# Entry
Amino acid sequence: MDPSPSNAGLSDQELADWLENKHSNKTTVVYVHATHLFRVYEDAGRPVEMIKGDLGSNSIKVLRKVAKSNRLKRIELTYSELESSTLSNQTWEPLKAESTHLTALKKNRDELLGGGRGKKISTKTTEVVWHEAGGRCMYQGCGGDLGVTSLTTKTARTAYLAHIIASNPDGPRGGSSSHELSDSPENIMLMCDEHHRLIDRIDVENHSTERLKVMRNEHATRVNALLEGLKYPRTQAITLLADVAHVSTNIAKSHLNDCILGRQLGPLGDIKDVIRRSQRDDRGRLNFWENLLHEHENDIREFISLTSNRPSQSSTPPPDVLAIFPLHLVPILILAGRVIGEARNVEVFQYARDTRVWHWPLTDNTCTKPNFGLTYKIDDYHNEETILSFELTANLDTKALPIDLALAVKEKRINWIRLTSTLPNHGCINSQERLDAFCKLARKAMAKIQDSWRSKKVHIFGISPASTLFKFGQILQAGHHTAYRIYDRPDGVTLFIPAIEITGNEVSAVQKDSQPPLTINLR
# Structure
């Protein structure tokens, strides 16, 4: 059977089969060559289609058989003439071909295709090409895995470093720049044996320099994109810690890194401890919050700079994600969330008091479905001030409200929105779903306060997990001039006291005396 050639040409074995067929039929065969180009056709006494093929070890053996039977002829043409010809030409004058001619042809062809006179490919170039190829064949659509074989000079290898512009000027796509580009990574492609033979031995004409460069660039770009996908986002760990109720708070760096990795984030080497407070918890002291802002004024300003979304003067790129580990006084948690806002990509971690870890439970928990709700205590929504309370850890003790607010509630002179849970407890935020559910309700409450009621002052009480208070702080919009007064309760005996007040772009302590309070710009 006479195998029909494809447009791309025949492999070494396919060409051998074609020649064997002609030899069996006692047909005279003519081969035509020009530098590295090689064609064959049957001598039919008229123009016939010439067949491209790879002159390899199998086909050369059959050609020798045809030559021995005196039915092999040869023609040598110029490169341009053979490259532009698809049919044989009756003006060509074939000469008798013998085994010695085949030996010389094979030797010359192998030298042209084997590297030529250019510089040898260096180890450094080899490593660059291998890296950019990702160990895969760079021929378009192939992607064959070549990582199981080494790049050696053994004839049985299956991974090849193929030149786009041949290192020999007379080689495939060779020219004046051949020697200069012989060791250039951009001029070399990693290829499997099949496609290496295709572009250099079988179908040179259909694999121009431009086409191969496009293949190489597209492959390298895709490999780089896929490898970049292995990287976790660069994540800066930030702790907001205080020794609350005289209980020391410390976290192992390794635990924080494990928690960050658990969310498929890449922790940076350092951990930023911001507004760290290890002093004695004496919140009942007069002007405590004024003194706290004085003590941590520089810390707050550094925190603002650290988390700013503005371009940094540093040569180090900013982190992709901020990982926040909050366990601090209620007003500081809300203030910290307000400082960062929602322009940055932030991941918030919740401390589990019972297990003393910062990651969500690894097993399914029936409490992951949130059971939160909003209640509106006052029906008259025409008041200028509003109480907003978060009661997920415990219910707010109404008897502990400041006297002025308690009286306003009694006389229905103030609105009150309560975000509550049917089963208040310290572990109520035990999944990302529950934290997201809290945020959804908090936004709904803020929309009512800001857009519907247009309250001029909001009194905030937080009896809720640290992560929820920080997330609420993020929701507060910079530049909005509603005043948010945040309350703190030093212990279970005293009343709530006003701690700090956040306006559009400032935070200040709520003073009891006549002295002007310290104000810190949050921009």
Q: What stands out?
A: The first strand starts at residue 29 and ends at 34. DSSP finds 14 helices and 19 strands in the chain. The CA atoms of residues 231 and 266 lie 7 Å apart.
